[in-house]
Amino acid sequence: MTNPLVTILLSLTIISELAILGSCRYSYLVQYLSDTNDIELQGITILEAPFIYSESGPYRGYSVDVIHEISIKAEFNYSLRQSPDGQIGSVDLMNGVYGELSKKNAAFAIGDISRNWQNDERKANNVGVVFTRPILVSTLSVLLSRSLLRQLGDTKRSKCERLFYTNGMYNRTARSPRCNGDITFNDILSLPGLNRLVIEGSPVHEFFVRYWPQRLPDLDLITKSILPTYGLDRLRNHQYVLIDETKFTEYYADQDCEFVLIDASGRLKDERANVNIDDTAGRPLSIPKFHNEIVIALSSNLIKTHQQLYGHNWLHKFNHAIDQLEQSGKLRQLQDTHWRNHCRRLAATNNAAPVAKRLVDFLGTGLFVFALFSTITSYLFCCNQF
User: Fold this and answer.
1) Alpha helix stretches (DSSP H) within the chain
2) Which residue ranges does the record assign to the Ionotropic glutamate receptor L-glutamate and glycine-binding domain (predicted)?
């Protein structure tokens, strides 16, 4: 007679195999449908990690992963080439990828493309360029070394605690949470002796020019080309910080685990100007919250042509696909792959190591106690027999 347990295990094995075969077949079907579409859209881009990069091979990066997912959902093939002048460009100058879109030399452009800071959406529409909904929202942050963060925290804590000494006695009842040594964005702007780097001509620089001009004398402007060498080296070894967008600061902090971030996306206040950047009480904002929307740019001329010939509204298809990717959590997953992968994985591994060690120690101790108990029990049993 067959053992019921064996029958159950065999049934579960067969079911799992069928599930695996079914998922493989479905993946193959999706790939087949994507590869055999007749419509191919040509894309334009430039190399700029983590959006686009290539190591003597096919293009890789966050934007490449996003356009691949969109192509599957919207059912089209695509190809990518680099902008002839090697620039993202701007709508005002009609250079870089925007010039190629306006001239109908490409259907879409991917990369570090902003629709609300370095480009005016209405101007873009007038020259034949339209933008999708955001595939990434970049906010304000500060990049600095861990050692500098500890130093600034200790200095702030000591200075704060000295304020609570009264008549030579420490007043414990007056102790404030402000004395925890946490460094904020306002501290970065006010602490003496810091060199605050900002990339000249960047959206962050434009933000200060437009909304916070009183802080411009506190900033050291550098060109983007020297940041990977001069700028980051100063951050590692000197009293330097970088004020920039999370799209770059998170990437640098993930590549070099010595770097840390100070988030500046919440409520900020300029103590000298007495204005709030983000007023959570709902009062009128004197300075708006910084956020940069990274999008995909499309040629509106080609969109109209394809809609007339094939009935495809590519802007609608792209936006619908992006909505699906966001709702399913796929966009967040792709962002983690390129912005929070290396150092975060190391941190998770280091955090898991002590837990695993404690588990091994616990199991080892348990086995030793069990063996000792078994030995004593056997000895007592043998003694009783004799």
Assistant:
1) 4-35, 62-74, 96-102, 121-126, 146-162, 185-190, 203-211, 232-237, 246-255, 300-310, 314-327, 330-339, 342-385
2) 50-103
